[in-house]
Design goal:
alpha/beta, Rossmann fold, Ribosomal Protein S5, domain 2, 3 domains, 9-stranded mixed sheet, 4-stranded mixed sheet, 27% helix
Length: 452
């Protein structure tokens, strides 16, 4: 008896496109080496045919008739800054996706949250990556092993975890991680597009039915984006990004999507022996070891809506090669190259034969356009061997013409600088007269007037 050959297909792990044979590059999204072989099924076409004949008409409501009397009370995580990022706490029935690089502290943070909430509400911690003994060791280190309402299961079955959520026995369920889940009906391996998408859908439906809040841990790729299909981010209610240096420095949790709150808040942590703790005064900690030398500039920046003072360091050295090297830690390299071009074109600095290195102290990653002026002045300071006065902070966006453009929330930046003893700011010319701000209109005047 000759057995029928199993048909296979190749599915892109980025966009979900299906191809009959393997190719190095996905023709749909352009990603390389993203096609994975899976068993082909004919369920899709038959399901579409059935759905065309089934279903029932739905009764819609108008916006006026929809009731808003039901009040949903959020429950706190025990970390006030994280509650602000979430929009006021964890929302019952909401699904949160927390993503970050390996070793940054995702599991530590979630176990701390689970320990706090389990003091008043039943919590389930489901791990597909670690055994019960491994989680117990972490819980002992964090002091989270004493509660009777913090339950643990080790499972990778999305069916079983969803069934447990639907029992309604738990108000919060933490799943570590979504990339390890799989459904029995799907033959592909965990972590593939079909498994992640369908497992997440099953978990989300169970959360909405039972009213339990769910926090999913997500992996990231080497580029820093969330692993798996982009549809995963669309399915959940909140997407949190955990950023920072896994070996030290500050770690930042910010919302990149939030259906129930703002995406402009950020929580800043540091890792200690007893877990992650909130940094109360990050500006003072970041500037504690600063030495005012050439190439050092204090930037008044923002993490969400929170003002922070951070040191920008620049090192400029004659290159030993034909092509100068430009390196940035915590700052976008393309933006650095643009600023170097503006400096060369709009000022008298010659940087074409210089290696340039930029470092943002504390492991922070800057996305603030107002960091431009501080980076440019740090480069000029290092190149010329001159430095800024001790009491000056800097912020402002630099245009291609060398002009200095306005920065958002200037009042908050100035208030933070005053709190730490700074007396003046090099910044865009304010609309209203301000004795604290030394307004500059272009990059050339900023360098001539303030580099001593």
């Amino acid at each position: 008896m000759i057995m029928a050959k199993t048909r296979t297909q190749f599915v892109c792990q980025q966009c979900g496109a299906v191809f009959p044979k393997w190719t190095g590059k996905c023709e749909q999204c352009g990603e390389w080496n993203s096609l994975v072989e899976q068993t082909a099924t004919s369920e899709g076409s038959s399901a579409v045919a059935r759905s065309a004949k089934t279903g029932r008409p739905l009764t819609p409501q108008t916006m006026r008739t929809i009731s808003t009397k039901e009040s949903i009370t959020r429950f706190g995580t025990g970390i006030a800054d994280l509650d602000s990022v979430l929009g006021g706490g964890v929302l019952p029935g909401g699904v949160v996706l927390l993503a970050g690089q390996p070793g940054i502290g995702k599991s530590t943070l979630l176990l701390q949250i689970a320990s706090h909430i389990s003091a008043t509400l039943p919590v389930l911690y489901a791990s597909g990556e670690e055994s019960a003994g491994q989680v117990k060791l972490r819980a002992t280190r964090l002091g989270a092993e004493s509660g009777d309402d913090l339950h643990f299961i080790a499972s990778t079955s999305a069916d079983d975890i969803a069934a447990t959520i639907r029992t309604g026995a738990y108000r919060l369920v933490i799943i570590d991680s979504v990339q390890t889940l799989s459904l029995a009906e799907i033959t592909s391996a965990p972590g593939t597009v079909s498994q992640i998408t369908n497992s997440a859908n099953v978990i989300i439906r169970a959360a909405k039915e039972s009213g339990a809040a769910v926090i999913l841990v997500g992996h990231v790729t080497k580029e820093g984006s969330i692993a798996g299909p982009k549809v995963l981010e669309h399915l959940v209610d909140v997407v949190l990004q955990f950023e920072g240096d896994r070996y030290g420095g500050f770690k930042v949790v910010r919302a990149i999507k939030n259906r129930y709150g703002s995406t402009s808040e950020a929580a800043i942590f540091e890792m200690t022996e007893t877990g992650l703790t909130v940094v109360k005064n990050p500006s003072a900690a970041l500037l504690a070891e600063r030495q005012n030398a050439d190439g050092s500039v204090v930037l008044a920046t923002l993490e969400g809506n929170r003002p922070i003072l951070v040191e920008i360091q620049a090192l400029v050295n004659s290159t030993s090669f034909g092509y100068p090297k430009r390196t940035a830690s915590g700052f976008d390299l393309n933006r650095l190259n643009l600023l170097i071009a503006v400096l060369e074109r709009r000022t008298k600095l010659n940087l074409s034969d210089k290696d340039i290195y930029i470092n943002v102290v504390g492991g922070l990653k800057l996305a603030d356009p107002a960091a431009d002026l501080a980076v440019a002045m740090a480069i000029a300071s290092a190149a010329a061997g001159r430095r800024l006065d001790d009491e000056l902070v800097v912020f402002g966006e630099v245009g291609l013409g060398g002009e200095i453009r306005s920065a958002s929330l200037s009042d908050k930046r100035i208030a933070e600088a005053k709190k730490l003893g700074f007396t003046h700011a090099i910044a865009p010319v304010p609309s209203k007269k301000n004795s604290f701000i030394n307004g500059v209109q272009d990059l050339r005047h900023a360098l001539v007037d303030y580099l001593k």
